Predict the structure.
Amino acid sequence: ETGVTQSPTHLIKTRGQQVTLRCSSQSGHNTVSWYQQALGQGPQFIFQYYREEENGRGNFPPRFSGLQFPNYSSELNVNALELDDSALYLCASSSYRGEQYFGPGTRLTVT
Amino acid sequence: DAKTTQPTSMDCAEGRAANLPCNHSTISGNEYVYWYRQIHSQGPQYIIHGLKNNETNEMASLIITEDRKSSTLILPHATLRDTAVYYCIVRSLYLDNYGQNFVFGPGTRLSVLP
């Protein structure tokens, strides 16, 4: 068991709405990374947070934003949802530069 | 783009060793080779990683060629539960131009057959 938890498990939203996904990192980890995984593809990096600061960002628009809290848990916020945002959203925690341990993911469906 | 190439799919008989190859011909000196696997609709699971020496843990062995341009993940006695997509990732300790250091390709879909 990795110790990384995500909520909710599944979510259905309408185009144009906003969504917040949550992640609790594994004990002792101070870094959280978020990935988007479309059906049949490998995970794509969205951004990473280290000690509450964004530490790196992939090729995603600004409507994808995040937060990391003092307990190292994290949120992913997506504004103005589009149909193509339908995907499995994965959170991974690690020590800085350590191997990443993934949560089970949140399945987002945008209709 | 991922810095690795892997076969799209492989089959393995249950109880036999599964050998999953990965090419990473452009790997640089500070880059590690990581392996993850993803069972259907679950989050990726860390398997093993290495720099230049062969590594073994309770899940698998990682064999890296001397020139470090390729590697092989070995599952010594594959079971049906090992059916998954296996990702080989070359990862620097430093962030790339996109601020990331884990880049997933499409991986190898391993099917363990009874």
Notes: The mean pLDDT of chain A is 93. Chain A touches chain B at residues 2, 4, 33, 35, 41-45, 47-48, 55-59, 88, 90, 92, 97, 99-105, 107 (CB under 8 Å).
